[in-house]
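Worked example (supplementary).
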Amino acid sequence: MSSTTTVERSSEDSTTLASDCAERERLGNVRPLDWRNPSPATRYDLVVVGGGTAGLAAAHGAAEQGAKVALVERYLLGGTCLNIGCVPSKAILRTSRLYAEMRHAGQYGAQIPADIRVDFAAVMQRVRGVRSRISRADSTRRLTSAGVDVFFGEAHFTRPDALEVEGVTLCFSKALIATGARPDTPAIPGLAEAGYLTNENAFDLTEPPHRLLVIGGGPLGCEMAQAFCRLGVETTIVQKRPLFLPREERDAAQILSDAFARDGIAVRLNTHVVNVRVESGAKIVDLVSDDYHSTIVVDAILTGTGRLPNIDGLNLDVAGVAYDARRGVHVDDFLRTRNRRIYAAGDVCLPRKFNDTADASARIAVCNALCDGRQRLSALTIPWCTYTDPEIAHVGLYVRQARERNIPVKTFTIPMHDVDRAIADDEEVGFVKINVRERTDHILGATIVARHAGEMLSEITLAIVAGVGLRTLAHVIHPYPTQAEAIRKAADAYVRARATSSRQRRSSTWLSSLGR
Ligand SMILES: Cc1cc2nc3c(=O)[nH]c(=O)nc-3n(C[C@H](O)[C@H](O)[C@H](O)COP(=O)(O)OP(=O)(O)OC[C@H]3O[C@@H](n4cnc5c(N)ncnc54)[C@H](O)[C@@H]3O)c2cc1C
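After joint prediction of all chains, the assembly is encoded as:
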């Protein structure tokens, strides 16, 4: 972090007004003030509990098939992704990237003032503007015009085929539980008393903290630490494991650690937060790393230590639905619960808590519930991406997973510094790594670390889903110069390796035929 960065802490009147307009539009879309719940139908083909990504996809999908559908949402349509997750986090990351680029403008030949001022109020105003624009797609209007009955209120089951919302009973042939997840707060003595931020309130900040501690080195913690640091906040990130993003390849996680260090984030790996207390308005945080004890002083703490399924208050026992507090609702591969009338989708039942997966699982559940479909969750190919800079994206099997399954694996890696466009863009950090089954071009998985890894990954995901081998990707013309050329280069490397090994095989056959 440049020492010359300053953060403006006062918001202009116009900023507040504009943000209020944006908020008014969003709330008007996702929870109109004058909303009246409709009179319920005698029986619904499908009642959806939860109006987040999974619930909305299910309600729209079922209504399109002509089903009589009700959707119940206790708070805001759009759920986590729109209101407190993907959308605001990606909007704030975009601005933070701009500030990072401005600080390095000199290396591109651009001259900008050394003292870059971050207008935090305007940054958050933009976040709210983005959120309100995207909220149109999740509106009550869209649902009702599709024929869905929308009920606001907390739902709980009263029978295996009925639930109640705001004192009204909704009877169903089928129901879908899509109640999502919430932040899992770490059990740290003094944390609750000191107060902390989660994704549920961090996007409501109107002033940035001077010093921020982020607890947790998963995707959420990493994205938020980088965003706030680049917006001029003195940021420390604490991760109890030896590397960030523990699921990812070690070299990918190491690149992220290095990027954080370059940004000026204080990185504390292998470190536990053991106590928090407040002194003179500041939060005093005790840390332990192996036997080394230390203390840091911050103004705010943001936790990003995982998510827990929302099952409380649903009365799942009455509905005959099996569940537990960590895994959430138990489902089979068809997303059916123990009660054959009731299905679940999204974060409430899936270990992989992603927006795209919530959407895809909801489509499967609707097909299986309403059309006697036999679509399986396990048939999905699920890619994911952490939107730090560089981004870290993955699909399919990691090398270690392939080995655990006794699948012989060969990996083709292209560093981004060998890709012309990455050099031109000064975005040379990262790699494309594609794993194939040895002696075949069958793609098992891929990891991409690059500025736009999330965009690049879709080509590999498509190849996996369509059964296209790596050899074919070598014949796909990629516009020059693009960073996605790294994928073609990895495919070229595969073709070269195959050619070399067949040449070697031919020459050893020839040599043995000569008796040598
Ligand atoms: C900060 C952050 C960033 C993220 N970024 C990404 C990203 O970049 N890409 C990505 O793929 N994923 C991302 N995710 C994950 C993504 O947001 C979730 O996977 C997705 O929103 C899950 O959708 P869902 O429908 O299962 O649950 P939710 O969106 O949480 O919706 C559940 C809804 O159910 C309602 N509800 C709960 N209980 C009841 C009840 N009893 N009665 C009525 N309604 C109820 C809730 O109010 C909520 O609106 C992010 C998450 C966070 C927290």
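Two points are worth noting when inspecting this output. The CA atoms of residues 285 and 296 lie 5 Å apart. Residues 49-55, 72-75, 79-81, 85-86, 89-90, 154-155, 178-181, 199, 220, 310, 313-314, 346-348, 353-356, 358, 387 surround flavin-adenine dinucleotide (CB under 6 Å).
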